[in-house]
Write a structure and sequence with these properties.
Helix content is 40%, strand content 15%. By secondary structure, the protein is α/β, with parallel strands linked by helices. It has one domain: Protein tyrosine phosphatase superfamily (Protein-Tyrosine Phosphatase, Chain A, Alpha-Beta Complex), CATH 3.90.190. A five-stranded mixed β-sheet has the order 1-2-5-3-4. A hairpin with a 2-residue loop joins strand 1 and strand 2. Helix 3 packs across helix 4 and helix 4 packs across helix 5. One of its GO terms (cellular component) is cytosol. Belongs to the protein-tyrosine phosphatase family. Non-receptor class dual specificity subfamily. One of its GO terms (molecular function) is protein serine/threonine phosphatase activity.
């Protein structure tokens, strides 16, 4: 995967640094999304058992959590097609087991939004626009970029 072409789209790549919110949002019961959160009390307070990390940094390694680390570029040219199914399955498995699931990227704006939308579409058989509107009603700064939504 080459992200060289992303230089022309820096407005997307940096959008979350200015607008995003590291604060977690509960999208559905036991399904949270947000930015990087290294506060171990957060995971305990919300009974988080599964974490999907879509950026280079995740929760503290010493926390006993089921972790999926799938770093991806936050640019319109990102290739996320091969990552959607395993991420959706991991989220669903965590929720079916009764645990809390936290899906995060750096700021909780684009990459995590795209994967939550993919999950909503897969599990609730929603169209993209329906899933996006639902997510936006829960998290005001949800704004997946075109590179992460094209395959969804």
């Amino acid at each position: 995967m080459s992200d060289g072409g992303c230089l022309k789209d820096l407005q997307w790549c940096w959008y979350g640094l200015f607008v995003g919110s590291p604060t977690a949002t509960e999208v559905l019961p036991r399904l949270f999304m947000g930015g990087l959160n290294r506060d171990e009390k957060f995971y305990a307070r919300h009974s988080i058992t599964h974490v999907v990390t879509l950026c280079g940094y995740g929760p503290p390694k010493y926390l006993s959590l089921q972790k999926m680390h799938m770093p991806m570029s936050d640019c319109p040219c990102s290739d996320v097609v091969t990552r959607i199914r395993p991420i959706v399955q991991f989220i669903h498995k965590g929720r079916l087991q009764g645990g809390g699931v936290y899906v995060h990227c750096l700021r909780g704006v684009s990459r995590s939004s795209a994967m939550i939308i993919a999950y909503l579409m897969a599990v609730f058989d929603l169209e993209y626009d329906e899933a996006f509107r639902f997510l936006k009603s829960k998290r005001w700064c949800a704004f997946p970029n075109p590179g992460t939504t094209r395959p969804v």
